[in-house]
Design a protein that fits this description.
The chain has 397 residues and is of the alpha/beta class. It contains 13 helices and 14 strands. Helix 4 packs across helix 8. The longest helix has 22 residues.
Amino acid sequence: MRKFANRYGRLGTETAFAVGADAAAWSAQGNKVYPFHLGDMNITTPDHIIDAALKAARDGKTGYAPGPGIMPLREALAEDIGMSRGLNFTAENISVQPGGKPVIGKFLATLMEEGAEALYPNPGYPIYESQIEYLGGKALPYGYVTTDSGFAIDKAEIESQVTNKTSIIIYNNYQNPIGAESSVAEMKWVADFAKKYDLWVLSDEAYFEVRYSGMSKSIASLPDMAERTVILYTFSKKFAMTGWRLGCAAGPKAVIEAISKFNTNQESCSNHFVQMAGIACLKGPNEPQNAILDQLKLRRNALFDALSDIDGVKVSKPETTFYLFPDVTDIFKRLGYTNSAKFRLDALHETGVSFCSREHFGRPLPGEEKVFIRFAYSGINVDQILEGLAALKGFWE
């Protein structure tokens, strides 16, 4: 039998799903599980969005749609993204996608030559690393340093890696898994860095609207950045639509046309009646989205307070995303662990609490000494947060 293609061996995965398999196996044995591992949502999509999809399906919107997306949705996205980010977008700047994730691979396939280098955040969303390497690029990870308010990009590390082969930087402000939010100065630094080395920028803005105070800002809105930046936009988090698979790429017209060509080659088009639901999202009332954020904020506060109450946990309280990324180094060492997988699985088996380790978000960087874990609170209610963390506190202390 012939072997698999060599490039397949370079393809990674979203490793949080592997943690989910461990949790599911433990639950199948009759054990209680508190699911902090996967950034899915147990909040139902608002009714007016579901109603719009059902109506569209009944009205016959069940066939093929244009590859770049239906024009009313592209126009609505151009208006929404443009107004919220201070950009002058039209439908030509939008390519509708079956989720936000496809934007990563299509962006890289369009703009990264084989053998070229791409900078990406680590810890970060593992699909960046996977797609860079699968498509024949060299993945250059950059990390973060801890600050009094959370995390900041390690600028020196980025500067030390860039070469004449570096063509791309992936920038995930409002960051998964660490919840980091760039200061104005940090975002400007990233923009100046991209311009200095003439880099394309993929700005992953999946959590742009998931924030509890303040205002989000896009790097594409800074001077001379719109022409070199593609925005990854998704409905998944903003409207509790993780399973609907709807998003878009937004950026320079020529790049968007190329990305839409991949649409035609790979999936033909995004689901027509789901696109109609997307219009209802953007044109509908704000109250359902505000209610989603209110629920998430209550969960964040409950989780932050419970984690802060455990001796040996150091955790910041980000105003964006639905993740906390605590430093548990003191607990790890006090309990005599040397392996993060055993640390995670022991917590699951002793308390039912399921979380991800730092290793699930990219290969650890040289010199990392602290032990971090990620808690997602988008798929677990406040009472379960408190119950699970009480069990974890008893085990760790």
